[in-house]
Amino acid sequence: MKIQEVIDELKSYDGKPVKIMEVCGTHTSSIFKNGIRSMISPKIKLISGPGCPVCVTSSAYIDRLTEFSLKEDHCVLTFGDMMKVKGSSMSLTEAKAAGGKVKILYSPLMALTEAREHKNIQYLFAAVGFETTAPIYALMMEEMKQKNITNLKLLTSVKTIVPALSYICEREKNIDAFLSPGHVSVITGADSYRELAEKYRKPFVIAGFEGEHILAAVYEIMRQLKTGRYEVKNMYATAVKEKGNEKARALLSEYFEQGDDFWRGIGIIENSALRPKKEYEIFDGGSRIEGMNEEMPKGCKCTDVILGRRNPAECPLFKTVCTPLHAIGPCMVSSEGACGIWYQNS
Ligand code: SF4
């Protein structure tokens, strides 16, 4: 089928309104960049989901980083996206301005070099992410073990997406289908969504990131909905295998174990964390969820945005009080956050 025929069919859809959640921020960006909404019927609503790890990181986690950075001969290593996320009193940017030592890294492996070159400094690496980045954190621990690096620890906030989707399916009954995340699926595999598709009777379609990939996935979802089907369909087969990346998953099982995790704006989701196993707790800089219980900033609708109840433009603070330069909630801070993406593109 030609792409124009796909567009014509999606554009002319006039059935009951359909809500499709795109789980990851890269899909949200691509939907804007490729003008996907203008190519489909307004009755097909694309909504964002919880796929930005920075947005769901709790303020108590940020507090642990800022407190560490302010100690003598201590330094926090982090990705740039984390710098502006507010803790209960300050962000890492503010901690740095107050004399804290914070260094931005472009690759987690740079943390090893940093620790080897400055043995007199204690480092804490902000290991935030989903299954996609977790194998690199496992490799870090492997190298730390082999090279006996003792002045570096990981403060992990590594989340797994399937328990979060299960949480959403259980509570947000009006979401009709899911555009499954491409990058995470490379690790977890298409099989990881089968139980959800069966249990909640919803299509889960894995898509690549080009405009035509997304259109084809939306078309597949609509085809399934029209015929009353609810299947997992892998439309990103060049990168995603049925069982995922088995080598990476074996590495994860060696270094991490599952646990409950706190998602900012949502609360605790069972079995949604990957934490260093007991035998590797020597590398763990305090990755626990005790004390993580917080309200979102007043007026901020990040919870609704993350759970697909409203899009960012439906938040009264969007673009008025809340902007990337003056972010009220975490979804505006990160380049992968739905509010930030909507701000840049709408
Ligand atoms: Fe929160 Fe700002 Fe997004 Fe509104 S626009 S939901 S205040 S981050």
UniProtKB/TrEMBL annotation:
GO biological process terms held by the UniProt record: protein maturation
KW Metal-binding (keyword) present: yes
InterPro entries according to UniProt: Hyd_form_HypD, HypD_1, HypD_2_sf
Gene3D superfamilies: 6.10.20.100, HypD, alpha/beta domain 1 (3.40.50.11750)
Keyword DNA repair: no
GO function terms (MF aspect): 4 iron, 4 sulfur cluster binding; carbon monoxide binding; iron ion binding
Family of this protein: Belongs to the HypD family.
Protein name (database record): Hydrogenase expression/formation protein HypD
